[in-house]
């Protein structure tokens, strides 16, 4: 066995899971000089990390559960991430309508004061009290509100940008590749991986289990180990409806069960509504919104807005499972969103780090904490670096307006909608997309709704795209617009390109 191990590639670190936590850890580790391998059994961000409320926020409601450390860290990270990825993260003002029988005004004011000053707030305006008139979208009996700042984000692209940066730092990242076995032999991890019908093996000095909702199952079924913590699988679901109101404000709506629901402006022509909190015990591959969740979200919205919604207004839904560390809270909404890292020394010496819980906003700090745990195994580890280095597309970024204008100057007659989407998706990396392209005529096949062959080829080459869903739902959100015939056209092209690539490899 020893001679066989010597024939296999040996990495410092192997990471299981291509959600935000796994990719964030891989990126941080690669930038500190470790050789890193990451495998994801599906596509990057294909589960929890693309099913969030798409916010970078401190978590105002966590203050009620006295999670001051988490809120402070998240508020600090909000500032850091705005600077790292200004193309996919944008400031957003939130309005909290006051319903006095749920929370008194003094309590909300106190919470917002803490929210303003608990973390360093340098770029966003402070909270303020609002007297609401009858010109807005809310019901006329709501006359008082409060306004504060947080940020919106393209969650799936945040994962992709970290993956791209990790690769540029030297990491190897593979999708559609499942770790089906792992054991310690001769003081290293031997991992057996399966990609389609092919199996292969690698070795690693340390293993990170960042499998998200599968973290406990991976420990028990794949590693044959006892999990140090239990997971509470909490389903969160969202609705997408036509734009519910004008203006670029989000609303945070209080409900009788003391939970909150967001309504968030989404992609210029929609409103995103969510989220729910309920225990999930089903198949993690088939998470879908329930009728109860649909009715709950519609009821909360209709309590607040003059324009009522009915089920037929719903354009799309999405659901994800948040793998939260079980703190024995009575209510799903009260389970901590903080993260827990568990270090296990398998066979007395070989490190296994498992990630429990966490939230999108604090992924970078989670990664730093993970590297702190691993530091004693890698004494040559370089210092922390991720706080100040932009993510791909954030380099030399001046403003969204100037970038859009630059695209329009480069490509005469390009529709504003395409230039805007590219600027928001790729930031300054749009110039790699447009390398040697100077004319609208060079975009190639038009698949519809501003998606051209030029962009599809780039996504295949640079962003690990393997399926239509990768393109339409995670690299973009054009799935909201594509019809069946357009999807078939795109799929045929994609399979032809990928088939030709496989033929050349064979």
Task: Please name the defining characteristics of this protein.
506 residues, alpha+beta, FAD/NAD(P)-binding domain, Helicase, Ruva Protein, domain 3, 3 domains, 14 helices, FAD
| Poorly predicted segments | none
Calculate the mean pLDDT score and round it. 94
Structural class: alpha+beta
Give me the number of helical elements: 14
Task: Tell me what portion of residues adopts beta-strand conformation.
Answer: 25-35%
What's the β-strand tally? 20
Principal-axes geometry comes out as globular
Might you state the CATH topology name of the largest domain? D-Amino Acid Oxidase, Chain A, domain 2
Fraction of helical residues = 25-40%
Structure, explained:
With 506 residues, the protein is of the alpha+beta class. The chain is built from 14 helices and 20 strands. The chain has helices at 2-6, 20-31, 68-84, 105-117, 155-168, 215-222, 291-304, 363-374, 400-410, 416-426, 430-433, 453-462, 468-475, 484-505, and strands spanning 10-16, 36-39, 55-56, 89-97, 128-131, 144-153, 172-174, 177-185, 188-195, 198-209, 231-242, 249-254, 260-266, 270-274, 278-279, 316-325, 339-346, 350-357, 446-448, 451-452. The strands form 3 sheets. Strands 3, 4, 5, 6, 11, 12, 13, 14, 15 and 16 form a 10-stranded mixed β-sheet that branches. β17 (339-346) and β18 form a beta hairpin. The longest helix is centred in the C-terminal third of the chain and has 22 residues, at 484-505. It is globular. The model has no long low-confidence stretch (mean pLDDT 94).
């Amino acid at each position: 066995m020893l001679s066989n191990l010597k024939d296999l590639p040996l990495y410092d670190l192997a990471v299981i899971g291509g959600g935000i936590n796994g990719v964030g850890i891989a990126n941080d580790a690669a930038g500190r000089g470790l050789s890193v391998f990451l495998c994801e059994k599906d596509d990057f961000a294909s589960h929890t990390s693309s099913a969030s409320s798409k916010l970078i926020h401190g978590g105002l409601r966590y203050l009620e559960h006295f999670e001051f450390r988490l809120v402070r860290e998240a508020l600090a990270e909000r500032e850091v991430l705005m600077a790292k990825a200004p193309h996919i993260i944008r400031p957003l003002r939130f309005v909290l309508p006051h319903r006095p029988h749920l929370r008194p005004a003094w309590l909300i004011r106190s919470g917002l004061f803490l929210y303003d000053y608990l973390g360093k707030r340098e770029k966003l305006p402070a909270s303020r009290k609002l007297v609401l008139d009858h010109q807005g979208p809310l019901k006329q009996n709501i006359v008082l509100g409060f306004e504060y700042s947080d940020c919106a984000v393209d969650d799936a692209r945040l994962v992709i940008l970290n993956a791209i940066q990790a690769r540029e730092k030297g990491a190897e990242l593979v999708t559609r590749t499942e770790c089906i076995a792992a054991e310690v032999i001769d003081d290293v991890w031997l991992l057996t991986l399966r990609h389609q019908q092919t199996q292969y093996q690698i070795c690693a000095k340390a293993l990170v289990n960042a499998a998200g909702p599968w973290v406990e199952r991976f420990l028990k079924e794949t590693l044959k180990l006892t999990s140090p913590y239990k997971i509470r699988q909490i389903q969160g679901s969202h609705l997408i409806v036509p734009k519910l109101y004008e203006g670029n404000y989000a609303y945070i709506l209080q409900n009788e069960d003391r939970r909150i629901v967001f309504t968030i402006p989404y992609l210029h022509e929609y409103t995103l509504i969510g989220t729910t909190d309920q225990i999930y015990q089903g198949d993690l591959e088939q998470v879908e919104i329930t009728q109860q969740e649909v009715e709950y979200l519609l009821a909360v919205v209709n309590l607040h807005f003059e324009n009522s919604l009915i089920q037929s207004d719903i354009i799309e839904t999405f659901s994800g499972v948040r793998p939260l560390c079980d703190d024995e809270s009575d209510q799903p909404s009260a389970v901590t969103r903080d993260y827990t890292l568990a270090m296990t020394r398998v066979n007395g010496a070989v490190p296994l780090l498992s990630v429990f819980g966490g939230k999108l906003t604090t992924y970078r700090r989670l990664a730093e904490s993970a590297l702190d745990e691993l530091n004693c195994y890698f004494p040559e580890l370089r210092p922390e670096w991720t706080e100040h280095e932009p993510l791909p597309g954030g380099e030399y970024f001046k403003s969204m307006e100037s970038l859009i204008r630059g695209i329009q100057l480069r490509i005469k007659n390009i529709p504003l909608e395409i230039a805007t989407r590219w600027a928001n998706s790729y930031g300054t990396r749009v110039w790699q997309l447009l390398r040697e392209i100077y004319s609208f005529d060079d975009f190639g096949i038009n698949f519809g709704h501003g998606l051209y062959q030029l962009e599809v080829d780039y996504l295949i080459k640079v962003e690990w795209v393997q399926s239509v869903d990768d393109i339409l739902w995670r690299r973009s959100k054009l799935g909201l617009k594509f019809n069946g015939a357009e999807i078939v056209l795109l799929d045929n092209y994609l399979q032809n390109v990928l088939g030709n690539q496989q033929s050349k490899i064979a």
